[in-house]
Design brief:
Elements (H helix, E strand, L loop, with lengths): L9 E5 L4 H12 L4 E6 L4 H9 L3 E5 L5 H7 L20 E4 L21 H22 L8 E5 L15 H20 L6 E6 L16 H14 L5 E4 L8
Parallel strand pairs: 1-2, 1-4, 2-3, 4-5, 5-6, 6-7
Helix pairs in contact: 1-6, 3-4, 4-5
The chain binds NADP nicotinamide-adenine-dinucleotide phosphate.
Length: 247
């Protein structure tokens, strides 16, 4: 097995209170990352307990939709309060952008009367998945050195080629946007030798799908960290199990 990229590194995980993001923080903490800044818009019991039980995890509150607040907050002066660390971090070797919402499963036109217009849903899902991902990158990218990695959480549902059903349209539109965001950033960050990876985590049992996934968060995250350690090519679309996925 390849030596982990993450040992001794400084990591930021955005969207870390539960699900895949929380498991990323947990496993990275065990793998001996130097420091992990976990960010979410609420502090779950799980993340609170983890912060209390290990030395290398700090937590900061932030909503990824708030671009200004993210920027101001994470460039602010050092705080001594571990729980509300104000997010001060000088160096970010790896930035994992995980926050996301699923939105309505209903098709765009053939919808129940309770959801007559999909516009609001599209806007909300786009704001968190696409703009929120960008806002996180915007806030931290200046602290990333040459050799750094950025992971954007995508989905197989981002794929244009395999889009053969009409369900979860807002989510698919947004994740396709995440993929394009990643491709553009991969080109722009090439000169700085920062790799950008689009990751599909598999169908994972989390609150997002009411626990209806094929694999556990532990299995998904083991695969994600293995693939991020291996991956050398910026702008690629990977799956947690090492299979590529069509755009
Ligand atoms: N589970 C799967 O099968 C699957 C498959 C493909 C891709 N994904 C992607 O993987 C990522 C994690 O999903 P998950 O399954 O672990 O879902 P989850 O358990 O619902 O976790 C999503 C996390 O994102 C946070 N978040 C949502 N909106 C936010 C905001 N505005 N600001 C900050 N944080 C926010 C959530 O916090 P709140 O509780 O405050 O909302 C939560 O901690 C998502 O991007 C998802 O699209 C998941």
């Amino acid at each position: 097995m390849a030596t982990s990229f993450f040992g001794g590194k400084n990591i930021v995980v955005i969207g870390s209170a539960r699900g895949i993001g929380f498991e990323l923080v947990r496993q990275l903490s065990e793998q001996g990352s130097q420091s992990i800044l976990a960010i979410d818009r609420y502090e779950s019991e799980d993340i609170s307990k983890l912060v209390d039980s290990v030395d290398n995890v700090k937590f900061a509150l932030a909503d990824v939709r708030d671009n200004e607040a993210l920027k101001v907050r994470f460039s602010s002066a050092e705080s001594t309060d571990k729980k509300n660390a104000a997010g001060h971090i000088d160096l970010v070797d790896c930035l994992l952008c995980v926050s996301g919402v699923l939105g309505s499963p209903s098709p765009l036109l053939n919808r129940p009367s309770s959801e007559p217009n999909p516009s609001e849903d599209i806007l909300n899902v786009f704001a968190i998945n696409v703009l929120g991902t960008f806002n996180g990158i915007y806030a931290f990218q200046s602290k990333m050195p040459s050799g750094g990695k950025i992971m954007l959480m995508s989905s197989t549902m981002a794929s244009l080629e395999t889009a053969t059903h009409s369900l979860n349209p807002a989510y698919s539109v947004a994740k396709a946007g995440v993929n394009m965001l990643g491709r553009k950033l991969a080109v722009e960050l090439k000169d700085r030798d920062i790799n950008v990876i689009l990751m599909s985590p598999g169908v994972v049992r989390t609150e997002m799908n009411d626990g209806q996934g094929d694999i556990s968060t532990q299995q998904s995250v083991e695969g994600i960290l293995r693939e991020l350690t291996r991956s050398g090519t910026s702008g690629t679309f990977l799956r947690y199990d090492g299979q590529g996925w069509p755009w």
